[in-house]
Design brief:
two-stranded antiparallel ribbon; disordered C terminus
Length: about 130
């Protein structure tokens, strides 16, 4: 004979567990991933390369006088590749403060658009490639 009380209780527990797991899964899908943090050495390297480019007047962002289309999502920079257009425009507009702006962006999120753009522009050259 069928014992409905025991099976009904187990079914309710199973439904509650499934509902909880589903809710937890959906909440997890909506959550934003935590920003990636860089090491102090990585931050110093990008900032140092930016400052060096500014001092030598070889900074691509500050020397770029082009007027790229404001609606563009990416900008293609010779020798660098594609970068986020909005982040690139913000760096250009920052002027002399761009190195600090990149440092702040990279401290906040190493994989964010502003930091990735800054790293693309000012990745430190290997020691063998540097000129004294």
């Amino acid at each position: 004979m069928f014992s409905g009380g025991l099976n009904l209780g187990a079914a309710r527990a199973g439904v509650m567990l499934a509902t909880t797991l589903l809710a937890a899964g959906l909440i997890g899908c909506d959550a934003k991933p935590k920003p990636v943090r860089a090491s102090a050495e990585q931050l110093r390297a990008v900032h140092g390369s930016c400052v060096e480019a500014m001092i030598r007047s070889t900074c691509m962002a500050s020397n770029d006088k082009s007027n790229s289309a404001p609606q563009a999502e990416t900008v293609l920079i010779a020798g660098v590749g594609r970068v986020d257009a909005k982040a690139y425009r913000q760096l250009r507009e920052a002027g002399d403060d761009m190195c600090r702006q990149v440092q702040v962006a990279c401290e906040a999120d190493w994989d964010g658009n502003a930091c990735r753009t800054g790293r693309a522009l000012w990745s430190p050259a290997p020691a063998a490639a540097r000129t004294p």
